[in-house]
Structure formats: C-alpha cells, structure tokens
C-alpha cells in the first residue's frame, strides 16, 4: 500500500519512466505468450518451442536492466534525513523500490495477457478481434497456469534485480578529493570480444549448418556464430567503463583548461555508471549493423518476422532508455557539485561546454568501435 501511495504522489516524469517500464514488460510478456501459443499449436516441435523461449531471454534481460535503472533514479526511494525516524530506513526504501518495480512490470504483463487474448479472439468487442487467431493457435485452449508462470518471470526478476542493486551496503565513504580506482574490466572485455569474434569466424567456416530459429523465422546462422556474438556483446559491456575512463583521461591530456579538466574529471568519476550501459548499446547497435550488412542487400526484411522485429525493437529501445536513465542518474549524483560551482561563480556556459565535450569524446571512441565490431562480425558470414 505504501508503494501505491508513493506512486500517486510522484512527479509526472517519474510516472512516465515507470509507464515505459510497463510498456516494455507488456512487449516481453506478449513475446512469451506468443511462444506459448506456438508450443500449444505445434506440440510435435518441442525443441523449436524451447529455442524460441530462449530467444525471449534477450528482450527480457534488456527490460530488467531498464527497470533497475529506473528504480535507481526514483526519488521516492532515495535515503533522506528524517525518514529513518518514521521507519523508512535504507532497507525499507529498497523494499519499496522492488515493490514499485514489480507493480509496473505486473501492469505490463496484464496488458500483454489481455492483448494476447484479444488477438486470439477470446475477448471480443474491440478492433482486431481474432486478427492473429491462426498464429496464436486460437483453436486450442490457453494453458492458464503456464501463461501466468511465464508472465510472472519478468516481475519477479525485475523486482529481485532492483532489490539487489539498491540494497544497503556497508562501506566507508571515500575521502573528498581522492581519485577513484580505474575500472578493471577493460582487459577482460577486450579478451571476450576477441574470443567471440574468433569463435564466430571458426563457426562460420565449419559449415555446421544447424541454426537456432528466432521467433518470426530468422534461422540462418549456426549456433557457434550466435554464441560468438553473445561473447562479443558481453565483452563490450565489460569494456565500457574502462573505455569511458580512458575518454576522461584523454580530455585532460596536453595542458587542459578548466573546461576540459572538469569534463574529464566528471567522466572518470562516472565511468562505471555510464560505461556499462554505453557498452551494451554499442553491442546492440553492432549487432543491428551486422544484420543489415548480411540481409540488407538480399531484401532481408523477409527473413525477419513480426515477432523478431518486436524483440529487436524492445532490445534497442530498452538499452537506449537505460543509457539515458543512467545519464540522468549521473546528473543527479553530481547535483551538489554543480550547485557548488555555480555558487562560486562558474559560468553556465562552462558547464554546458563540459557536458558537450564529454558527449563528443564518448562518441569519438564508441562510434568507430561499434562500426569495427559490426564489420568484423559480418565479414566471415559473407563468404
């Protein structure tokens, strides 16, 4: 009840972010239900049904990441003076954040179930009654227990991830002015990218030929190629913080002025918070670029069905929204520093120029990296 009361009194922008989480959850829930419909309509293809279900893990993971990012920026779950006296300590606020995340995802899952039943023709009186009856096996009854179990996966996973991300930690506050340690994931990330590209190249030349069917009919790539791309994506996510930290150091190189020094120092301090979602976005865009290289010239839109397109759109939208939310969290985290700079007379143009320099530095590093990884991933598949 307390979580619902906090929802009623929150800022419209905060509610908008929660509604975006609910919309993403609705998309994931619909994909899961469509996979269930395929399994019900094709009982003889159990292995294909399992593989389709596994493909839904990618948009589900992207949605969980977005839900956690939204929970981290929720002002109602931020510790404030005086709340512990009324029983709202850090542990209780963490529970409220997890409950709010579960409510948003459950709302989306409910919408997905209603829309699924409507497209099957089980709910009438609205436009598009039974429009996808053949695709969703409308001639078979919906296994309600299985449907509810699938729809419960995302709310439980998102609430658990939000609780773990926001749990109270017992750690000293670092002394003022002490430089944070360099992120240690860059060597591991580079190694995983190299291993993933090597596995993809070897698998494409082995000619095994057995593909993993995606929802919608995309089944052209062998298993090893997809596993290699997954390792490449994980490597980019691990390397993101280290690359962002390096961008901050480059901004401060060669006699930096006050603006470059401020931009580089902020980027180094926020490298962990902003680097990982930036690496994930780079991995997603590299995958999209590689797919466009492979299928664009051959009229490849026929290789992607509507459910594959929905899953790709969910992954792209959720990862991009996670990056923007992380940038908002970074801005909120340095609000006191910005206020102090304004109080001592720093011009607003300096702050805006520093933000622009940070964005340009990240684009200069991550855009070529994304293009290179996409080209290297698509190269062995063209031959």
How are the secondary structure elements laid out?
Layout: H1 2-8, H2 12-41, H3 46-55, H4 57-72, H5 90-120, H6 144-165, H7 186-206, H8 223-251, H9 258-269, H10 271-295, H11 306-333, H12 335-343, H13 348-382
Helix pairs in contact: 1-5, 2-3, 2-4, 2-5, 2-6, 2-11, 4-5, 4-6, 4-11, 5-6, 7-8, 7-13, 8-9, 8-10, 8-13, 9-13, 10-11, 10-13
Q: Could you give the count of β-strands?
A: 0
Low-confidence stretches: 208-212, 216-220
Estimate nothing, just give the exact number of structural domains: 2
Q: Give a quick account of the main beta sheet: strands, pairing sense, barrel closure.
A: none
Q: Which class do the helix and strand fractions yield?
A: mainly alpha
The arrangement of helices and strands along the chain is HHHHHHHHHHHHH
Tally of contiguous helical segments: 13
Name the descriptors.
single chain; 383 residues; mainly alpha
General description of the model:
With 383 residues, the protein is mainly α. It folds into two domains: 1-167, no CATH class; 182-383, no CATH class. It has 13 helices and no strands. α4 crosses α6, α8 (223-251) packs antiparallel against α9 (258-269) and α10 (271-295) packs antiparallel against α11 (306-333). The longest helix has 35 residues, at 348-382. The model is unreliable at 208-212 and 216-220 (pLDDT under 50).
